[in-house]
Amino acid sequence: MKCMLAVAALLCVAIGAAPAAESFPSKPIRYIVPFPPGGISDMMARIVAQQTALTFKQSVVVDNRPGGNAMIGAVLAAKSPPDGYTWLSITITHAINVTLFPDAPYDLLQDFHAVSILASLPLVMVVNANLPVKSLAELTALGKTRSLNGGSSGNGTPQHLAFELYRQLAGIKGQHIPFKGGAPSMISLLGGEIDLLITGVPEAIVHIRSGKLRALAIASPTRHPLIPDVPTTAEAGLPAQTITSWTALLVPAATPKAIRNRINAAVVGALKQPEVAQKIRDQAFEVVADSPESAQAFIASEAERWGKLVREANLKPD
Length: 318
Prior knowledge:
Elements: H1 2-23, E1 29-33, H2 40-56, E2 60-64, H3 71-78, E3 86-91, H4 92-100, H5 108-111, E4 112-128, H6 136-143, E5 148-152, H7 158-170, E6 174-178, H8 182-190, E7 196-200, H9 201-210, E8 213-218, E9 244-252, H10 257-271, H11 274-282, E10 286-287, H12 292-312
Parallel strand pairs: 1-2, 1-3, 5-6, 5-7
Antiparallel strand pairs: 3-9, 4-7, 4-8, 4-9, 4-10
Helix pairs in contact: 2-10, 4-12
């Protein structure tokens, strides 16, 4: 009798869940971006919002909630109903935050479930063109004779961890110089006040093309189509210096799987449209558009990888 009741209960749940998933979405969707408007994550979110709104025939409204090392927006999303109507944009910053902020008021891996990794973006190692080095090997040799000043957009950011990784792998002398944002660090590099910046291709490419900066290596397994003459870190002799920035879409963890899958299908379908994919590539990104399961596993692996470096380097937030 108990078994029959249990089966009946499960059937009721399944029958109740099916119409909800089939009718999703029936109202506008809120897409929280925990960064200011105009940035790379915001740009990707707006592309996804525009395209999925066409698919769903419902508004997908981008809601920028910057601050707290990208945690303010994440907390807001974590507290939202798990019904598929609240989406969260995250980046590698959130994977780093897992260890950097152990007392954060949310748990990235428990309170959310991934929908998809949207796109990835390799970092490029750039120096001021007046620095007397022409290759990564020459920069490493210089870093063994004197301390190199490596800039970043703040403690615990991807740029910071990329510099710490380089310092660890190459065995160089180095001093991390944090700035309050990517623009100030780039200005400092252009002015010759720091030696090195490991940053996203979009932030550096204009200055690389103008000759003000020299790109020494791209921190990815393959060369980048926008700067094809720049070798990979593996080609430059430092294969472990691989760090890819990325952006992903998450929903609260208890969101029904059927609804997660509907969102994934819409997002992946949008990103794989040729004109949309080309627009993304023009911004130096590469489309990923994977499954929820693959994305969840990737985010967990990133949290583990960068958590190890945060602990070894004894990194602390600002």
